[in-house]
Amino acid sequence: MKIVDARVIVTCPGRNFVTLKLVTDDGLTGVGDATLNGRELAVASYLRDHVVPTLIGRDASRIEDTWNYLYKGAYWRRGPVTMTAIAAVDTALWDIKGKAAGMPVYQLLGGRSREGVTVYGHANAETVEGVLAEVARYVDLGYKAVRVQAGVPGLATTYGVSGDKMFYEPADAAVPTEAVWSTERYLAHTPGVFAQVRDEFGPNLKLLHDVHHRLTPIEAGRLGKSLEPHALTWMEDPTPAELQDSLRLIRQHTTTPIAIGEIFSGIWDCQQLITEQLIDYIRATVVHAGGITHLRRIFDLAALYQVRSGSHGATDLSPVCMSAALHLDVAIPNFGLQEYMRHTAETDAVFPHGYHFADGYLHPAEEPGLGVDIDEDLAAQYPYRPAALPVNRLEDGTLHSW
Ligand SMILES: [Mg+2]
Fold it and tell me: Where is the Mandelate racemase/muconate lactonizing enzyme C-terminal domain (predicted)?
């Protein structure tokens, strides 16, 4: 089962996606997501110029060996561009292995540990009244978990709050737009929003909130403490986590659970967070953390320390990544939650897929492999458009984390 073709497909059905498609000499195909939001072409070049030439003629059944070949063989280790490229190859090889075995990939990962994958949606609005209406909409759709983001009075824009509720896309311009941030205004406003949401929807709805790396550890400790009466399922990315020790300070001040990991590219980015139990949920993803093979390693390490998965699932991950994520989610013992932002109809058409949502759960496809493909003719109708994520400044002009 040799790889005879490897195509890197860049398409923009509403937003940019990079996809790797592998073809074997016995006619099997596999797809892997290689999308790195705002840096898409860097990964496409990494794949085309440095990876594809080494794949042709390689045995497609050797997933582990290929992972190590691409990781150790590059000499330059880690980093989002490298790990996203490796993830694409790894995901495509799992897809091929599933098709060769005649089984959905989750069967190759040990089979089902649960009946469905609990997902959370994004309820966001400028006003508290708008937030309550958005949460109600998700509850009506069957969601059992909702992430809540509200506008902050005095700020023109706020992360996570957009006009297009269902298909929020922050990468909105070729050159980054600039937003203004005030930690003081945010900390004063946010606990009251959650008090009203909890009061309106009762104790059983899982509520989540994304801080988007905007607080210092002690500020995050204060926020977490102020949110304790409203029993959040998690507080996401409370502070930048390059300094993993800093999470200890937050832990000293609050029992609000913490979720981190959407920008991590490997196990070494979260080793201390997991082994010292400084987080409760690890949010690394298939596409950015080295594929199914490497993310499984992260989840297995996390399981030893009672840390559960909570994988990133924003619209900047293609349906190929979501398909792969669902096979892992349904198989691992320590699954927590899966983020699920719906793609547009144009994106869904480019990536025909077999997973489906029902009653608050996503279900992976039952067909052999990952159960997803890319329509290359349709993809060709949507050429790449430069789109960058915004940047953020404090009110005095100081650059801050977005
Ligand atoms: Mg996030």
Answer: 128-257
Q: Rounded to whole angstroms, how far apart are CA atoms 179 and 158? A: 8
Nearest partner of 150 among 118, 120, 187, 119, judged by Cα: 187
Output the pTM of the full model: 0.97
What is the 222 CA–ligand 1 centroid distance (Å)? 19
Type of residue found at 324: A
237 alpha carbon to ligand 1 midpoint, in Å? Answer: 7
125 vs 178, 202, 220, 269, 313, CA distance in Å? Answer: 20, 20, 22, 32, 20
- Identify whether the C-beta of residue 289 lies closer than 8 Å to the C-beta of residue 268: no
* Number of neighbours of residue 126 by Cβ within 10 angstroms: 17
Domain ranges of the chain: 3-104, 108-366
Describe the crossing of helices 183-201 and 217-227 by its angle, rounded to 10 degrees. Answer: 20
Domain formed by 3-104, architecture: 2-Layer Sandwich (3.30)
Q: Going by DSSP bridges, is the β-strand pair 234-236/258-260 parallel, antiparallel, or unpaired?
A: parallel
Say yes or no: domain 108-366 is CATH 3.30.2010.10.
no
Active site residues: 159, 212
Question: Residue 7: CA atoms inside 13 Å, Cβ hemisphere, count?
Answer: 14
What would the two tokens of residue 341 be?
């932002």
Phi-psi region of 228 (alpha: psi -120 to 50; beta: other; left: phi over 0): alpha
Q: Name the strands in the sheet holding 399-400, side by side, starting at the edge strand that comes first in the sequence.
A: 178-181, 391-394, 399-400
Distance from residue 185's CA to the centre of ligand 1 (Å): 20
